[in-house]
Design a protein that fits this description.
Elements (H helix, E strand, L loop, with lengths): L1 H4 L2 E4 L8 E4 L2 H8 L5 E2 L14 H6 L10 H7 L7 H5 L2 H18 L1 E3 H6 L1 H11 L3 H15 L29 H17 L5 H6 L6 H32 L1 H9 L4 H12 L4 E6 L3 E3 L2 E3 L4 E5 H4 L35 H18 E6 L4 E2 L8 E3 L1 E6 L2
Helix pairs in contact: 6-8, 6-16, 8-9, 8-12, 9-10, 10-12, 12-13, 12-14, 12-16, 14-16
């Protein structure tokens, strides 16, 4: 309804917050994200929480996401070479071996919680190798990271953002006390990499003089979360979609050359990021709607990826969809997802190995979603996997 009749719509908020403009069409979202001078990440941050009212918290919690160029460019450049398409392609054989082993293990079980058995494992293993996190530490580190970003879900966090008093943690990302555990681990790992540097991202960051200790800590947390979330939920939503559209799994198996378009369609369909926020730096207009300086402008990825004006039959999974201008990695501009090529690689090899190994996917229970207005994620997905004879 909003896309059709009120694509830039004002919403009031409770508890004295200012309200926000909801941007629901794809073209308008792209316009916002490509114009960082008019729609800033740095002024008020990327969450609905109004950190501009608390400058101390805004500065303490700032990551690369909450910066505009040239500051954003400076931080991003420190690691961008590790995430180029060419750099990521070198990891294909590693990713393929990991996902093949994981799928074979799930097939041996037959009925599995797909999130735990498959979707969670590959991205953790891959981003750990890129960052330089030892295998022995990965499980605990990502447990902490989950509790930080899923700060409203009691299955992950002991301190709930919207139910408990989180003011004592207002200087920490997502107001989560477990951020401190990630920060402490990051410093320990950096100290190890300083003594014995390797060809990984943390070694690069530890050897740089361009980050303050807090900038390093928040950057490390961002990489841990972002390098895991997009792929984990894309794999989970992708497997669920293949259960709901079995003809598309058959289509992929009969046409292996569809893998690239299939990967983009799964990324569109999954849309792990629900929204991001920007702040208007001056009076402006968007789609003919006047917006005042200081207004919160919230771009709804989960709507734009199903925009009827941009996609034919958007609520049908079409693994051959082309063109596919989805915004799962952002709408362009300086904040286009740093890990886009890593996520694409992981989704592509996942679909390759599924098509080689799995004949049918059956949903055998009710999926459970993560309690979040920020991440579109599944925390439990009961599936039965049938192997190809």
């Amino acid at each position: 309804m909003l896309r059709a009749h009120d694509p830039v719509a004002w919403f009031d908020e409770p508890d004295g917050n200012s309200g926000f403009w909801a941007v629901t069409r794809l073209d308008d979202l792209v316009a916002v994200h490509r114009d960082h001078r008019t729609f800033s990440s740095q002024v008020g941050g990327t969450e609905l929480e109004e950190l501009e009212r608390d400058p101390e918290a805004r500065e303490a919690r700032r990551t690369m996401l909450e910066t505009d160029p040239p500051e954003h460019t400076r931080i991003r450049k420190l690691v961008s070479r590790s995430f180029t398409r060419r750099a990521i392609e070198k990891w294909e054989s590693t990713a393929r071996a990991l996902i093949a082993e994981t799928i074979d293990g799930a097939l041996a079980e037959g009925k599995v919680d797909f999130v735990d058995a498959v979707a969670r494992r590959l991205p953790i293993q891959m981003i750990s190798k890129l960052l330089g996190v030892p295998d022995r530490d990965a499980e605990e580190l990502f447990h902490w990271a989950d509790s930080v970003v899923y700060h409203a879900d009691p299955d992950f966090s002991d301190v709930l953002y919207d139910k408990d008093d989180t003011d004592p943690y207002r200087l920490l990302p997502f107001r989560s006390p477990n951020s401190l555990k990630v920060f402490e681990y990051a410093q320990q790992l950096a100290a190890e990499k300083t003594r014995r540097p390797e060809s990984d991202v943390v070694s690069m960051l530890a050897g740089s003089d361009d980050l303050t200790p807090r900038e390093f800590q928040t950057f490390f947390l961002l990489l841990v979360i972002a390098g895991n979330e997009t792929t984990r939920h894309s794999l989970s939503h992708g497997a669920l979609a293949l259960a709901e559209f079995p003809d598309q799994l058959h289509r992929l198996r009969e046409n292996p050359n569809l893998t690239d378009t299939a990967s983009e369609e799964v990324l569109r369909w999954a849309c792990p990021q629900i929204h991001f926020r920007r702040t208007a730096t001056g009076d402006t207009t968007l789609a003919g709607v006047p917006i005042s300086a200081g207004d919160k402008v919230v771009t709804w990825y989960i709507s734009a990826n199903y925009d009827e004006s941009a996609f034919t039959d958007p609520f049908t999974l079409d693994l051959g969809r082309d063109p596919n201008p989805h915004v799962t990695f952002g709408g362009g501009g300086p904040h286009i997802c740093l890990g886009a090529w890593l996520a694409r690689l992981e989704v592509r090899v996942f679909l390759d190995e599924v098509a080689k190994r799995i004949d049918r996917i059956h949903l055998v229970g009710k999926p459970e979603r993560i309690r979040s207005n920020f991440i579109n994620g599944l925390k439990y997905l009961p599936l039965e996997l049938e192997a190809i004879n």
